[in-house]
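In keeping with the milestone schedule agreed at the kick-off meeting, the structural modelling team has produced records for the first pair of proteins. Each record is given below as a sequence line and a structure-token line. The laboratory manager (R.T.) confirmed that both were archived under the project's standard naming scheme.
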Amino acid sequence: MQAAATDHTAPAGTPLWQDGWYSFARHLASPNFGARPAGTLTELLVIHSISLPPGQYGTNQVQRLFTNTLDWDAHDYFRSIRGLKVSSHFFIARDGQLWQFVSCDDRAWHAGESFYRGKPNCNDHSVGIELEGLEGQSFEDAQYETLASLGAALLQAYPIAHVAGHEHVAPGRKQDPGIGFQWSALQRALGLSAVNFPTHTSPS
């Protein structure tokens, strides 16, 4: 059975961040995390896409995957990933609802084998954000709005210098979020320069 989430409608005056937890997200703690290496700066946002089963939305199966409560026999696809232990810091549903599974002060297990701008092991120095969707397909306006708000809050709290997709930190192995993601829209929303983004990103 899936653990209950803490639904945060933070009252006025609540800090945006408390020990790496964002006050305006639903908190559902994942056991799949670890400490960041000592002295590591959290300087990268990695954007992903995920849906379980692939292409099906609103199933709550992503939440179950990240909390090790997925019923592997409930769907043929789940059997193919049986035993997988992963997490992201955040998950943004199609309606814009925001979930958090791991403190941003900790290392979530989202990027896997990865390398970006001269640094390996991107989990060590990144925050992972999953968008409910299918790689290569489009995302909802509500998701971009939540992503922009979350991104702005992360920029205030952490020394974020770069934003990239899973496809950019694990090229050839991953293709998400894919051509349907509007990189330039995110760049404008966050007020960042093109140098903060991958050289090759799809247009908005």
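The second protein of the pair:
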Amino acid sequence: MSKSQFEILSPFVSEARLATFNRSLNRRTRKISVVLENVYQSRNASAVMRTCDAMGIQDVHLIENINPWVFNRGVSKGTPTWLTLRRYHSESNPTEACIKTLKQAGYKLAVTSPHVDGFEPKDLPLDDPIALVMGTEFEGVSDAFLDAADYHVQIPMMGMAESLNISVAAGMILHRLIENLHSQPPDQWQLNDEEKAAIMLEWTKKSVRHSNKILRHFESAE
């Protein structure tokens, strides 16, 4: 029987690193994902991704037709490497494509806005998968996302400021959502075995230098 790609590559990764991968995968979720729509400052988008990794959120959807995201290792600390990024580059209307993709996958759109009927993060329903949508620092999310929203989300403001930095807002919202999510049984939010195996392989490939070359060598020898 031929070896799987993971079986070929895993000997090149330390046992400690593989154990870290496994611990992280057991805390990862796709019950919550994040959408970043044309965030003006790439460092803010990178900071949100760092928060996603820290909170165990695997999927981030990026809409960049106005403001492109540029990888910033200093801010993100390399965390985009461990996330599944969906970038809408080839679509004529990236926002509509993202909405369609998420809706077809069964996600409810939770759009951040100062909407009068908005949910506070602690009250946001988590019966269905949620995609938290955050927009540009200046204008917020687009009308298309506002119209498609299943829920509006707002952070109560107690002082004179009317808004928060996007990375700060994301951290506050996601921390509460994950806290609520983890009150559910683990089988309601954890990755399934197939998802874990696929992500483990991707992480292993990214951890092994010339992994594709190694795989081609082993596969050609079989």
